């Protein structure tokens, strides 16, 4: 297909601005005014920062859309080819016909893929108000042109330099005449015509080719080094003959005293008209690295999901009586993180991940006390009683939408401070976007396929070349986030063996069908990076940011839980007791059984089956918790599929026989025992010297140590004492479950406003339209009306004229234009349709606010009639 055919086809596909046959717009505001409501809604949806606050009219919307901060944000959300299109427009004439843009993108020889993808790129730029005008007069907004146009301080990604006119600005007329004469052009009478003649020569393919045919080979080599950029080169005061030949003919123009630059027109000729060395109209495909059966992926992910739940529960048990202290600057210390990692039997980085997931889900939090420390929240007790699949969906949904980034723990911020787990400064607004997009790309692979990480990163770079490209700690933050996402998804059980599981896919409403991410037709998704769904509240009814309901997110979580539930192992109600004082749990235990066994025995190993070991200390722990020996025998007999081994029964009876034989109370502390021989044995033992014991009576010893120290000392000597109360009763010691006050889970901290919903968009478009009517409406005989305002000022009429005009409008049902000053003294212009005038008030439909309002007549500064076709 030739360039002409591509041009005609693309011209039809791209369409026009949609002016309905009217004259071409002169400003961006006029172009926006010509759009329909859906076009305005599309702009506000793509650039939600324009809605904060809602613009008063289309002129203000256009002004805000051209501000530097908003344009930078919009450019960051363009894919590579659309950004390349904007960069090409920045080096094109202003305005540029579509055929010129096509030539810059596809070159003189044309390119089918580029020609097919260009209409989509122009449509996106128009939709986001970065480009306006019809196909004969495409205009890049001024701020975007300033950001993307080449300059010595900010080179363009195109590698192009300034135009001939820009490079020769300030050059002496004599020097210009010498250049055009050496280039074989007739001399002119002024510098402007000289620059125009030189530009015409460089843009004429035939004449330019003839000129270069006469160039020395060394001169062509110099041009080859500059043609794709950077276009600047250093020269000596006495340059070599090839450089002199180029400079004398204007093919190189002076930029400074020691620098020359290749003019843009010359570079485009050498590039065969292309602005970019390698246009990328087709997004790179994410290729599979390995493929597994989907059943294997789902079962592997389900096993890891169960491990994730067990890890979070183990973390809460570790902090059940209060966790580590909170640092003054927030977060937990490196030492406490190491201890937590040892307790969970994971690395410190993985421990930080589990801490952040539990914190984001509202399961752990600081307690807010003077000596602040971390602890489980009351929400944890509710969460742990829910079905396992629902608990997992809560964790996975929290992770997917969280802006907190566990991978940053241990790195340093811009001020050289180490970022602590659960501390501040871990939020990155881009994190939810990257996680969601990575999983969506995995969803587009064939079922059971794990991705090649390099192709995945290449795709992310194509879709958002600027977004997240800011370098942090010397690396690309976006690439680090993508790598962390793959690792964290595997830890959570969202993926199995690197491939997206069925329950992981259910977390992504609208995810592509398996095997659909192979862009071979030159087209890419219009908006692949959607705003992440908000985190549902504890009851699943409202989004965590308070802006909109999270029904889609809740439905996705429920669907994921339903798919995961059949894959999780069923809790078992029994263990297998063995003669070596161990018990094997062949699967996850029912909660009451697990809680009791955790007190009676110590966990020796974990895995597919958990091994518990019974020791004198663990049995004594159960007795201290109020269990009797008979209760322990009955418990084991009821929950063991094997007979209770004799060694275990003997161990329980032996510890129970000695348990409570000694009694410890407060003297500072005392020991009493009915067997005075035992007390004599204690006094004779050298290890009791530190307790400073003395006999008060044949059956009582007094100590200067406190009861807890005395208990621990006697136990270290091999005795099994029991604490008693002031009444002489045995004290039953149970683990104290410490909880924080009710805490709200941390909300994500996005970098900008979220994507607005349909209700907000509809209301905003109506408000902007109404405000635009008020600011641009045509007044009847404005110039001839005495006291009428012009130039946007408030109208001024007498009270009698105001009353008469609004009464007449109420009778005829017509609209009028009023000036109004509210109670705070703020003045505004409004278009109203009066309905009733009485008691010093006018009740009217306000077109500006799109609602019925009542206005005091004394606050109306003046009124003017509208042209018949104004509203």
Automatic annotation (TrEMBL):
Locate the region Disordered.
1-24, 505-552
Q: What InterPro entries does the record point to?
A: WYL_dom, XPB/Ssl2_N
- Give the WYL domain ranges: 801-863
Q: Does the keyword Hydrolase apply?
A: yes
Q: Which Pfam families match?
A: Helicase_C_3 (PF13625), WYL (PF13280)
Q: Which UniProt keywords apply?
A: ATP-binding, Helicase, Hydrolase, Nucleotide-binding
**Which superkingdom?**
Bacteria
Q: Where is the Helicase XPB/Ssl2 N-terminal domain?
A: 575-697
UniProt KW ATP-binding keyword: yes
Spans of biased composition, class Basic and acidic residues? 1-11, 518-529
Q: Which GO terms describe its molecular function?
A: helicase activity
Quote the protein name from its UniProt record: Helicase-associated domain-containing protein
Task: Give the source species.
Answer: Streptomyces gobitricini
């Amino acid at each position: 297909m030739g360039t002409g055919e591509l041009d005609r086809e693309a011209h039809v596909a791209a369409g026009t601005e949609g002016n309905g046959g009217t004259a071409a717009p002169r400003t961006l505001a006029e172009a926006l005014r010509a759009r329909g409501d859906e076009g305005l809604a599309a702009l506000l949806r793509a650039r939600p920062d324009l809605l904060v606050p809602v613009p008063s009219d289309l002129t203000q919307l256009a002004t805000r859309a051209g501000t530097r901060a908003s344009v930078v944000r919009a450019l960051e959300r363009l894919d590579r080819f659309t950004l390349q299109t904007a960069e090409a427009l920045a080096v094109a004439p202003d305005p540029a016909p579509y055929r010129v843009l096509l030539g810059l993108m596809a070159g003189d020889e044309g390119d089918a893929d580029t020609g097919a993808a260009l209409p989509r790129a122009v449509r996106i730029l128009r939709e986001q108000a970065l480009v306006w005008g019809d196909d004969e007069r495409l205009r890049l907004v001024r701020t975007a042109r300033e950001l993307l146009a080449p300059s010595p301080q900010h080179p363009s990604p195109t590698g192009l330099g300034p135009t001939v006119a820009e490079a020769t600005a300030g050059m002496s007329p004599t020097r210009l005449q010498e250049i055009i004469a050496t280039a074989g052009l007739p001399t002119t009478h002024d510098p402007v015509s000289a620059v125009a003649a030189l530009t015409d020569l460089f843009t004429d393919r035939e004449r330019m080719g003839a000129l270069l045919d006469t160039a020395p080979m060394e001169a062509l080599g110099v041009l080859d080094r500059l043609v794709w950029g950077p276009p600047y080169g250093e020269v000596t005061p006495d340059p070599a003959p090839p450089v002199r030949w180029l400079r004398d003919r204007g093919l190189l123009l002076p930029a400074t005293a020691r620098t020359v630059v290749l003019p843009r027109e010359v570079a485009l000729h050498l590039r065969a008209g292309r602005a970019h060395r390698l246009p990328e109209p087709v997004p790179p495909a994410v290729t599979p690295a390995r493929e597994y059966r989907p059943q294997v992926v789902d079962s592997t992910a389900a096993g890891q999901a169960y491990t994730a739940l067990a890890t979070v529960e183990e973390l809460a048990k570790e902090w059940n009586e209060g966790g580590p202290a909170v640092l003054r600057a927030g977060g937990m210390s490196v030492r406490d993180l190491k201890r937590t990692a040892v307790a969970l039997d994971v690395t410190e980085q993985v421990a930080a991940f589990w801490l952040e997931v539990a914190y984001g889900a509202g399961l752990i939090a600081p307690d807010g006390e003077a000596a602040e420390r971390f602890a489980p929240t009351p929400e944890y007790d509710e969460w742990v009683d829910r079905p396992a699949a629902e608990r997992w969906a809560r964790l996975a949904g929290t992770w997917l939408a969280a802006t907190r980034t566990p991978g940053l723990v241990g790195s340093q911020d811009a001020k050289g401070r180490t970022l602590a787990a659960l501390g501040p400064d871990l939020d990155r607004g881009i994190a939810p976007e990257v996680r969601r997009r990575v999983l969506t790309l995995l969803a587009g692979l064939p079922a059971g396929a794990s991705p090649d990480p390099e192709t995945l990163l290449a795709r992310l770079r194509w879709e958002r070349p600027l977004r997240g490209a800011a370098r942090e700690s010397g690396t690309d933050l976006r690439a680090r986030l993508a790598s962390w996402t793959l690792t964290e998804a595997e830890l959570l059980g969202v993926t199995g063996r690197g491939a997206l599981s069925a329950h992981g896919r259910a977390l992504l409403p609208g995810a592509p069908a398996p095997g659909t991410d192979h862009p071979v037709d030159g087209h890419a998704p219009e908006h692949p990076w959607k705003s992440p769904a908000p985190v549902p509240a504890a009851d699943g009814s409202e989004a965590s940011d308070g802006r909109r309901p999270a029904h889609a997110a809740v439905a996705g979580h429920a669907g994921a839980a339903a798919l995961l539930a059949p894959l999780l192992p069923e809790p078992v109600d029994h263990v297998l007791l063995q003669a070596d004082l161990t018990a094997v749990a062949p699967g996850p235990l029912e909660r009451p059984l697990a809680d009791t066994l955790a007190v009676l025995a110590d966990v020796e190993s974990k895995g597919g089956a958990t091994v518990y070991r019974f020791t004198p200390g663990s049995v004594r722990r159960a007795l201290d918790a109020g269990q009797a020996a008979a209760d322990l025998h009955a418990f084991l007999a009821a929950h063991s599929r094997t007979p209770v081994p004799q060694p275990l029964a003997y161990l329980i009876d032996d510890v129970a026989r000695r348990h409570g034989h000694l009694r410890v109370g407060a003297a500072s502390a005392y020991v009493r025992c009915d067997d005075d021989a035992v007390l004599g044995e204690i006094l004779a033992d050298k290890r009791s010297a530190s307790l400073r014991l003395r006999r008060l009576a044949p059956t009582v010893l007094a100590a200067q140590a406190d009861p807890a120290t005395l208990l621990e000392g006697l136990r270290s000597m091999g005795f099994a004492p029991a604490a008693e109360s002031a009444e002489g009763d045995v004290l039953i010691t149970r683990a104290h479950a410490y909880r924080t006050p009710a805490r709200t889970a941390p909300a994500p901290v996005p970098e900008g406003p979220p994507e607005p919903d349909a209700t907000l968009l509809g209301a905003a478009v109506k408000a902007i339209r109404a405000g635009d009517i008020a600011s641009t409406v045509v007044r009847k005989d404005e110039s001839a009306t005495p006291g009428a305002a012009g130039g946007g000022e408030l109208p001024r009429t007498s009270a009698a004229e105001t009353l008469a005009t609004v009464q007449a409008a109420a009778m005829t049902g017509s609209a009028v234009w009023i000036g109004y000053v509210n109670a705070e003294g703020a003045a505004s212009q409004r278009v109203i349709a009066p309905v009733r005038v009485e008691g010093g008030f006018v009740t009217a439909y306000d077109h500006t606010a799109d609602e019925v309002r009542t206005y005091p007549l004394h606050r109306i500064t003046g009124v003017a009639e509208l042209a018949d076709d104004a509203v």
